[in-house]
Amino acid sequence: MHDHLENKWFCIANPVAGRGKALRARKRIEKALRAAGLPFEWHTTQAPGHAISLVSQAISVGYRRFIAIGGDGTGHEVINGMMSQSDLPASELYFSLLPIGTGNDWQRCYSLPRRLNIWVKRLRHGQARWQDIGRIHYWHNGQLQMRYFFNVVGLAYGGYVGKVAASRRWTSFNKAMYLWLVLRCLFEYTLPEAQITFGKNQVQGKVYTIHVGICPWSGGGIRMVPQAQPNNGLLALTWVGAVSRWEVLRAIPLLYNGKIGTHPAVQTTQVQSVHIEPMNQSLIDVEADGEYLGKAPAYIDIIPRALQLWI
Prior knowledge:
By secondary structure, this protein is an alpha+beta fold.
């Protein structure tokens, strides 16, 4: 165990986040961290999934503080590295994120500054805050898989949009791009049938989309789970029943103003766990934190106060 590594920030930059913005800004970021007297080490990911192994190796040699430099996808990988390692409890580690990407939805929850000098000042004088972490079991290529998430899971239409985005290898989103994708996919999407089980409740029927969240924002500013609170020990669950394409178009303002729950086809609640099962051979896609994962059946639960943020 190297004591001097405990207070050193292990920075993980995604070279494709924000269309290469993280790498272009490297010298500026390093200079700002040095000027603030913050010890750090810089690492750049080489491929999808690389951040998970980088974090695990870093923890095994003594690092305890991690900064994801990128968007929600980079944060997703870093948190999976922190949660999945077995050297020590993830609750003994610290996580921060420098929002360089275009689809930075998680940072909205904490109003993280986008300006580097203000962000560094906040990091230097930061304080620890607890956040719950979600865990999802799902299927990929016939295998049962598990992944952690720190923001929002989308299933059915939410998952389908994530799959289309992944197939285009879009590395970043802004609000306009994501909304365009949501509208474009609408006309090629068939509503699946699902059984949603939570607590003693069970709902069956056609669904347009299902979202499960720790924090409220996703998809470039959309609030499908406006009831989400990051450390209340509960998952926010929203599902939309059978709606027409025209109704979806009319409801677009509700996606952004936090009032999605007022629509008659929408149900919102808070749960400790939820199981989503496709019915009648429907296919239900799954994404988490903007990363396409695979298919339902999916089981989602929560680990309360699993991680310390330093913000």
